[in-house]
Amino acid sequence: MAAGRMSFDDLTQAVMQHYGEGRFDTTLQVLEQHAAEFPEEAVRITLWRMCLQSLCGRTDDALDTFRRGLDQGFWWHETSFRDSDLDTVRDLLEFKRLVAISYEKYLQARAEAKPERRILVPDETTGPLPLLIALHGRNGNAETDLASWEVARQRGWLVLSPQSTQPLSPHSYGWDDPDQGLVDIGFHYEEVVRDHAIDAQRVVAAGFSQGSGMALISALSGKIPACGFIGIGTWWGHPEGISALAARGSDVRAYFVTGEKDPDLDRSRQIQGILRTNHIPVAEEVHANIGHEFSSDFATSFEKAIEFIF
Q: Does the reported pTM lie above 0.85?
């Protein structure tokens, strides 16, 4: 990265800081200043720009941004348009027309979604390998967190990163439907077991954010023979589903990595409470200076998690 160039994480933090302070004009200025530096994030930036223009009362600009995004082949899942940031344009006939176009593009993408995965193979592959099933967060894909899970590969684990078949926007996927998520994960697990010698006594489900919630559900459901769970910034929209699975009993041991600045920390601890109530062993590792993200020394976190699970 060139000296002085802002990373996308830096831009995201700057945008969220100004946005949180209600400085929408400043937020939009920062976004416009750096947007061209991240063409790979154009879909996300287009939605942010649309929301900020709406908040600033620039309804014509917001509609124009929407149109240009659609012309570029972009589209978004309908949940993206429920954001209150878009209240100033929501009832406009032109906005409704554009939402309908986006929805048609989404339906086409959903119909064409195919199972995809990425696999990290350790250097030493003699004998059955321990398996880490690592799920991306909402709006992620199979590539999103691979660099963070490299620490597992370096320690002899085969890492499977399944991609959800539930599209949210181009190259972004989520786990909103847990039943479909279980189908996706089960498909990839069976494929990996067919192609690699796996130690069935050392299978761990893991994930980030919504992927963490989906990983916990997959482990508790028994659909994969997971003995452990590792959650980073754990979030799930409907914890009652986790509660129902946990009440059935499970031998899974769960390790949570959390940040004190994570806006979803309360949800993570609610899920931990559900597990404890059902006598499932839980450990939490708390980092004082991080938010909804992986810790900078995740290698140490991974080692602690594996020690706790086994």
A: yes
